[in-house]
Amino acid sequence: DVQLVESGGGSVQAGGSLRLSCTAAGYTYYRRCLGWFRQAPGKEREGVATIDRFGFMAYAGSVRGRFTLSRDNAKNTLYLQMNSLKPEDTAMYYCAAEARRCLLADQWTYWGQGTQVTVS
Predict the structure, then answer these.
(1) What does the pLDDT read at residue 117?
(2) Helix/strand/coil (H, E, C) string of 61-111?
(3) pLDDT at 44 over 90
(4) In terms of C-beta density within 10 A (0-12 exposed, 13-18 middle, 19 or more buried), how is residue 54 classed?
(5) What pLDDT was estimated at residue 52?
(6) Is the confidence at residue 27, as pLDDT, over 90?
(7) Does the structure show a pLDDT above 90 at 2?
(8) Closest Cα partner for 102 from 52, 60, 45?
């Protein structure tokens, strides 16, 4: 049974930083397709960033240059470093694993429960 668990969310002032983590149980991150998504109240879920099995990373335009994805295979942990946060980054952030083409628009198989990020 695969479980993804996010942590690291919180409240921060605009311009601040947070680092989100996503650890997995029953699943190894080595050479896997992983991603971060977010959903703000009243809005559709949107993709934030992906890392494919070769380590290639892709970012949504709204976060490019501010957010950085990384993966620690030894710790089986995915990170999202978020800098220069804006109020519009406020959302529940979810990590996800396994998508056929590893694109944000794909259907993803495994999802975490989410961690809240609030920027004021």
Answers:
(1) 98
(2) CCCCCCEEEEEECCCCEEEEEECCCCHHHCEEEEEEEEECCCCCCCCEEEE
(3) yes
(4) exposed
(5) 92
(6) no
(7) no
(8) 52
Mean pLDDT of 7-27: 95
Residue recorded with tokens 């559709």: 44
Q: Are 20 and 36 in contact (CB under 8 A)?
A: yes
Distance CA(46)–CA(54), nearest Å, equals 23
Instruction: Return the structure tokens found at 109.
Output: 């198989």
Question: Six-digit token pair at 110?
Answer: 């495994």
- Convert the pLDDT of each residue in 78-116 to its tens digit: 999 999 999 999 999 999 999 999 998 899 999 999 999
Question: What span, in angstroms and rounded, lies between the C-alpha atoms of 100 and 27?
Answer: 17
Quickly tell me which residue has 């976060």 as its tokens. 63
Residue with structure tokens 């149980």?
Answer: 25
Number of neighbours of residue 41 by Cβ within 10 angstroms: 7
Torsion of CA 90, 103, 62, 117, to 10 degrees: 10
Q: Which of 41, 46, 28 is nearest to 97 (CA)?
A: 28
